[in-house]
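Category: protein sequence paired with discrete backbone structure
Discipline: computational structural biology
Format: plain text, a pair of labelled lines
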Amino acid sequence: MGNSERPARPEISAYAEDLADGIDCLGVSDFTLVGHSLGGAVATALAERIPADVAALVLLAPSCFGRITVSELSSAPVVSQIMRHALPFALANPITATGIYMAMVANGRMPDREMLGRLRSGARRTSPGVQMAVKATADAGRSKDAFFRRRVGYHGPVRALWGSKDLVVPRSHAEGVLTAFPQARVTVWDGMGHHPQRERAADLPRFVELAAAEARRPARLRRMGLVPPVALPTAVSYVQLGEAA
């Protein structure tokens, strides 16, 4: 955790550029791209950067589809300076680290010991990366070119997922997803917080698999000559409340 180099600048586009370079080196294409929280914003920027390579886009409580007050306050110069010194101590302390995680991330659940141990041991190393991510998120939300203010240049299948009790990225930001991606399907799982991979670990793989299957279907039909090779709407936008869809 936290061993990757930070981007050259605190911008969502810089994260996406690094990933695009890595994907190019690996020679990967025609894949389902999944991003959670900040990763959802980065995945969106990446899909817009290399749209021909992304077969489907899955966004799990993605940031940057609306303004997040906490991020904007935390990125202010005075607060940022305070955080620079206080955050490593807060993350290294088991009591404050557990409290922050339970309140903001885990929907009241206790973090497992292994995860808490990694968080504490890497507190000083990861804190600069956390601050960079906070600034990137805040600046993206304030930008005139923000995702939620325009149509994003990716027209493949998009599925987005929120928890009804998400305290980190409000589910109201789903409206921003639908502005950016009119073809998107947005689902809200009742009672879930910010981490579907922990809170609904059994349901999440099927959610991702459905998005991948949605991308494969038009491709198969085009290969069979049953539909013209043009971008077609893939879904009707909707918001669904309840359990896993």
In short: Strands lie at 31-36, 54-60, 158-163, 185-189, 239-242.
